[in-house]
UniProtKB/TrEMBL annotation, chain A:
This is Extracellular solute-binding protein. Residues 33-56 have a biased composition (Low complexity). Residues 1-23 form the signal peptide. InterPro entries: Bact_solute-bd_prot1, SBP. Pfam families: SBP_bac_1. SUPFAM superfamilies: Periplasmic binding protein-like II. It comes from Paenibacillus tritici. Keywords: Signal. Gene3D superfamilies: Periplasmic binding protein-like II. Residues 33-58 are annotated as: Disordered.
From TrEMBL, chain B:
The chain crosses the membrane at residues 12-35, 73-93, 100-122, 157-176, 211-231, 263-288. It comes from the Bacteria. Residues 68-284 form the ABC transmembrane type-1 domain. This is Sugar ABC transporter permease. InterPro entries: ABC_transporter_permease, MetI-like, MetI-like_sf. Belongs to the binding-protein-dependent transport system permease family. PROSITE patterns: ABC_TM1. It is a multi-pass membrane protein. Keywords: Cell membrane, Membrane, Transmembrane, Transmembrane helix, Transport. The keyword Manganese does not apply. It is found in: Cell membrane. It comes from Paenibacillus tritici.
Length: 458, 296
């Protein structure tokens, strides 16, 4: 009797387990099935031009997931995304916008993980050019050409900006900004050290660094635990020693190698900065935000970073004391009107989105309203779209007006290293530059390391 | 089996759900990463089968790999050397304190704190003098200025600074395990030994140590596996930098897979990690089985 009951239980358990495991198998089959179907869909849409755009948006209830990198409630960007989402939901009661808000590094990893299982959120954030290429190659993003034509959205973007987000004549993402690298400086600390004017040559800059250092002031703020910060500064030096933009492109085209004198000279110049004690002690364990705070709390005299920090500096304790200058010439080479260009993070739409049309409609609204909203929130310096209105009259700071003026002087420039080279080469570069902060290296060896990594990861 | 009076088949059926779960969640992923380790793959686009190419690169051409293995193993050795210390401490606590529980809880506190908090805490302790680091501050006030260092950014020192934090954090964990083990040894044994003239150190040598061997083994294995997988603390405090000086196997694997987009290569490193774990766990088990047999 007991035995039979036992057997019965066993059979039931066994059946249940089998059912569960079968369900698990079936599930994975399902996902891959929909994927192939959805993968085919955007291609077809792209092929037939505006076919997708003519479909009228339906009234069915949809939830659009919007992954973003504006987590800090104190910043204008956070207010912008929340207010715009709310406004859209009010106008479209059937649409719910779900914000998946993360900080930059978390978002990068999360997207990568989601991409590996082809489950990209409806709208996500990517970086331009080489950094978004792997995702585009994997067919994860929907082309936005048709949507850009609606409501004249395309014409709001600065000339040529969308090129950084285009592959094979398809635009795959809409940038949230277009910035340049400048050197912010604290006028009070400069005066305290007896420095009359910001440096116009690298040699002057080195001299100022030494003067500031002797006064016990950290000359240049940086947070080199996030190694892109050092690379961003280094690339500005390379832009000068190369006598103009295009060094990395020349390497990619096989016209130059990393062992070119311009590169070696840039490494030497960078090491001169390190040797002069320009950076805070222990820079490689300071993360990017904390590095910025050294400047924003008035403990460092200079900060070489993207103009996207303008709004944040105006909201910090050093507001009103800060000016900005163009990165100086190095050994008499280069043109200060050439800048490190930083086309911003950009909004991309998942090709596998279950409600592609609604998502595109929302993004169209979002991108169209974006410049106005940012202007209102005093965050319009460095946005990638044309915006009507006078900064000064709208109450922007002198620094903001000054930076906006620099934009008009831009004669060209380079993209960051990791936006130009593939990720594997970029990682070697980033840690190689990080190493310069803690060890004096033979600059020829640094160049060789770069070249070897480039060739190994072609 | 015979005690249960249940046919082997039934036992097998009852084990099955757990076994299936274990196979799905542990074995299948290991096999999958074994396979992806043979691919040249960025994790997104199509892959290409390259046999043992990744392993060849890893063993012969990767300047970061072997140093990170060395640091990981050193980490493991250091955390295993900590266990005897914990045991000694546990024995002392058990002998000289009536109610050691409060003290043990205090030692245990760092374990319940998130590693991120621990990392941030120690970062401020290790900060350079100019940024008000506590450790350097203490050294300076003792007149030992020449002993001050940038603990987390000097390539020769940074890794040891990390070891110390980890040892500090897990001291209480292993102490608790050992202390519980020591407490579970029946008092009668010690009383009987006392009559026979074995007291203090002698009693420890002939009673505590032999009886604590299984508990000791658990701690050793936990410490070993834990340190092989060390990841979070390194990520929070140095991110593997400066320039790979504090990279361990797991951070190198992470950077390769997710930052360099070399998913296949990262999987090859993962495979290596699995093999190392298995081999060393096997060795530790054999050694302790011998010890246990000796004392039984």
């Amino acid at each position: 009797m007991v035995n039979r009951k036992m057997k019965q239980t066993a059979t039931i358990t066994f059946a249940a387990v089998m059912a569960m495991s079968l369900a698990a198998c079936g599930n994975s089959n399902n996902t891959s099935g929909t994927n192939t179907k959805d993968n085919a869909a955007p291609n077809a849409a792209a092929g037939s031009g505006n076919a997708a755009a003519t479909d009228a948006p339906s009234d069915k209830k949809v939830t659009i997931t919007f992954q973003n990198i504006y987590p800090d409630p104190a910043t204008p960007a956070y207010k912008m995304i929340n207010e715009l989402s709310e406004q859209y939901q009010k106008e479209h009661p059937n649409v719910k916008i779900e914000l998946d808000t993360l900080n930059t590094d978390q978002q990068k990893v999360k997207l990568k993980t989601q991409a590996a299982s082809k489950e990209v959120p409806d709208i996500t954030i990517v970086n331009p050019a080489a950094q978004m290429k792997p995702f585009v190659d994997a067919g994860l993003f929907a082309p936005l050409n048709d949507m850009l034509e609606q409501n004249g959205l395309k014409d709001t973007y600065q000339e040529g900006l969308l090129d950084y987000y285009s592959f094979d004549n398809n635009v795959y993402a809409l940038p949230d900004g277009n910035n340049i690298e400048v050197v912010y400086y604290n006028k009070d600390l400069f005066a305290q050290a007896g420095i009359a004017a910001p440096p116009t040559t690298f040699e002057e800059m080195l001299k100022d660094v030494k003067i500031l250092k002797d006064k016990g002031i950290t000359p240049l703020a940086i947070g080199e635990k996030d190694s892109w910060t050092g690379s961003f500064l280094f690339m500005n030096i390379l832009l000068r020693t190369n006598g103009g933009p295009g060094f990395l492109q020349d390497v990619l085209d096989g016209k130059k190698t990393f062992e070119d004198p311009a590169f070696v000279e840039a490494v030497d110049a960078f090491q001169a900065l390190v040797q002069a004690g320009a950076f805070p002690d222990g820079a490689t364990s300071i993360d990017a935000n904390a590095g910025g705070n050294i400047f924003k709390t008035g403990k460092a005299a200079m900060w070489s970073i993207g103009s996207w920090e303008t709004g944040a500096i105006d909201a910090s304790p050093v507001a009103g004391k800060v000016g900005a200058f163009q990165f100086p010439t190095v050994n008499g080479k280069g043109d200060p009107n050439e800048f490190m260009l930083a086309p911003g993070s950009a909004f991309a739409v998942s090709a596998n989105s279950e409600h592609l049309q609604e998502t595109k409609d929302f993004l169209n609204f979002f991108a169209s309203e974006y410049p106005k909203k940012q202007f209102e929130l005093k965050n319009a310096v460095g946005i990638g779209q044309k915006v009507d209105g006078d900064l000064k009259a709208a109450g922007y700071s002198d620094l903001a007006v000054n930076i906006a003026g620099l934009f008009n002087q831009v004669k060209g420039g380079d993209l960051a290293f990791d936006n130009t080279m593939n990720p594997a080469t970029a990682q070697v570069h980033l840690s190689s530059i990080q190493n310069l902060f803690v060890q004096k290296m033979d600059s020829a060896a640094v160049a060789k390391e770069h070249q070897a990594a480039f060739e190994a990861n072609k | 089996m015979k005690v249960l009076k249940v046919p082997a088949r039934t036992i097998a059926v009852f084990i099955l759900p757990c076994l299936l779960l274990y196979v799905c969640l542990v074995f299948v992923p290991i096999l999958v990463s074994l396979y992806t380790g043979l691919l040249k793959w960025d994790g997104l686009t199509s892959s290409q089968f390259i046999g043992f190419g990744n392993f060849k690169d890893m063993f012969l051409n990767d300047p970061v790999f072997w140093p990170s293995v060395r640091r990981t193993l050193l980490y493991a050795v250091a955390s295993m050397l900590e266990i005897p210390l914990c045991l000694g401490m546990a024995i002392l606590l058990n002998r000289y304190l009536r109610r050691a529980n409060t003290l043990v809880s205090v030692y245990f506190t760092p374990v319940i704190l998130s590693v991120v908090i621990i990392g941030q805490l120690w970062k401020t302790i290790y900060n350079p003098t100019s940024m008000g680091g506590m450790l350097n501050g203490v050294l300076v006030s003792l007149g030992l200025d020449s002993w001050t260092h940038n603990w987390l950014t000097e390539p020769n020192i940074a890794m040891y600074s990390l070891y110390l934090v980890s040892l500090w954090q897990y001291f209480g964990y292993h102490l608790l395990i050992q202390y519980t083990g020591v407490q579970n040894i029946p008092d009668e044994l010690y009383e009987a030994a006392k009559i026979d003239g074995a007291d203090g150190f002698k009693a420890d040598r002939y009673i505590t140590l032999p009886l604590i061997v299984p508990i000791f083994k658990i701690s050793i294995i936990l410490a070993f596996i834990g340190s092989l997988q060390a990841f979070d603390l390194v990520m929070v405090m140095t991110g593997g930098g400066p320039a790979h000086a504090t990279d361990v196997i797991s951070t190198h694997m992470y950077n390769s897979s997710f930052m360099s987009f070399k998913y296949g290569y990262g999987s090859a490193i993962a495979t290596f990690l699995v093999v190392v774990c298995l081999v060393f766990t096997g060795i530790i088990n054999t050694v302790f089985n011998r010890l246990e047999r000796k004392y039984n």
